[in-house]
Design a protein that fits this description.
With about 240 residues, the chain is of the alpha/beta class. The chain is built from nine helices and seven strands. The chain has a seven-stranded mixed beta sheet, sandwiched between helices. Helix 4 links the parallel strand 3 (about 75-80) and strand 4.
């Protein structure tokens, strides 16, 4: 019922609303979804506004839940792999919520998306990317792809790193949320429901201000954001070269 209500709002009211009004609806819908799934959000650090202007949110990627966890605090438009556009029902929601789609198998597509991403940021948007470009089990941090950080340089945007991890109510690692490997969406949903209760922890680290994003290379921005997220997740340091 919650999904159907979201589809109805997206198909009727959403296109006619201002961005601030859309942000409020998206935040409420995301919070309600997490409540239905018995997932509590725990926030560390200081989040920016509900829809901070000219801000690129970057986070590690564990689950399809990441989008709704982030949107329950700071609402963003996301950059996602093009395959999500074809998901039944969910694809319609994601597409009509303003998501930009990228073909991960086409290196040249990053240039097109960067232009659209920079334009959205310059127009006052809050955008979000997962620089790992795939999901992990949450116990490690994959190398970041630096290509989409170029948009933040072009737009002189603030870069806001956010570390995500899923825990049991007792504070231990929770594997149920991980949407990695050969796990299907249905299997993932069943694992989440079977967990009965879960905590998603969002750690907002110090933002990288526009002045610094304009002067740094996309590789430097990628490395700085990754270091901040790695430290927030309390993972050991290791030398990583940012990829395109």
């Amino acid at each position: 019922m919650h999904l159907l209500r979201g589809l109805l709002v997206i198909a009727t009211r959403y296109p006619h609303l201002s961005q601030p009004a859309r942000a409020v609806i998206t935040q409420r819908w995301s919070r309600h979804l997490l409540h239905i799934l018995a997932i509590k959000v725990r926030v560390h650090g200081t989040p920016p506004a509900v829809y901070p202007a000219n801000t690129l949110v970057v986070a590690n990627h564990i689950s399809w839940l990441d989008i709704f966890a982030l949107n329950s605090v700071t609402v963003s438009r996301f950059v996602a792999k093009k395959e999500l556009r074809d998901w039944p029902l969910a694809g319609f929601l994601i597409k009509n919520a303003g998501t930009l789609f990228i073909d991960r198998n086409n290196r040249r597509d990053a240039s097109r998306v960067n232009e659209q991403l920079a334009k959205a940021l310059q127009d006052g948007g809050c955008m979000a990317v997962f620089p790992e470009a795939t999901t992990s089990d949450g116990r490690s941090l994959l190398p970041f792809k630096a290509s989409l950080f170029e948009a933040s340089r072009l737009a002189h945007a603030t870069v806001q790193p956010v570390a995500i991890r899923y825990l049991t109510p007792g504070g231990h690692y929770c594997a149920a949320a991980a949407y990695a490997g050969d796990t299907s969406f249905w299997q993932s949903l069943c694992l989440i429901l079977a967990s009965r209760a879960m905590v998603v922890e969002l750690s907002y680290t110090a933002a990288i201000p526009p002045y610094d994003t304009a002067l740094a290379s996309r590789f430097q921005l990628s490395e700085t954001a990754r270091d901040a997220i790695r430290d927030a997740l309390q993972l050991p340091a290791e030398p990583v070269v940012a990829a395109e």
